[in-house]
Specification:
The protein is mainly alpha-helical. It is built from 5 helices and 3 strands.
Length: 115
């Protein structure tokens, strides 16, 4: 894996999987080619839950969701950070900054929940 790390917002992942010809997918493809994605279990689980929302059923199959999540897992490191970051204007985004502040560790693969 590339030692250069990147944190990607959940909305970018969702846009990428919904529109494989769009800008978000192009950014995602470049990110996994040139960087290692950093997650916490919390940020990965948020993505895994949101990607299975029923409102996306008409746009993407479950198989495509599973393949996309596997691609992300295979190109990610997971941080076990306990840092409390409060610098973002949107408090929900603080959880994205915390893993960027620590050196992440590679765990065993987290589960992919289906809702």
């Amino acid at each position: 894996m590339n030692p250069d790390l990147i944190v990607i917002d959940t909305n970018i992942f969702i846009s990428a999987v919904l529109s494989p010809n769009g800008t978000a997918y192009q950014a995602f493809s470049k990110a996994i080619k040139h960087f290692t994605i950093v997650h916490t279990d919390q940020t990965y689980q948020e993505l895994a839950q949101r990607i299975y929302k029923p409102k996306f059923d008409k746009y993407i199959s479950n198989q495509r969701r599973e393949d996309f999540l596997a691609r992300i897992r295979n190109n990610s490191q997971f941080s076990q950070t306990t840092l409390a970051i409060t610098d973002c204007r949107d408090p929900d985004d603080n959880k994205l900054l915390a893993p960027a502040q620590e050196k992440p560790k590679k765990p065993s693969s987290p589960a992919s929940p289906k809702n």
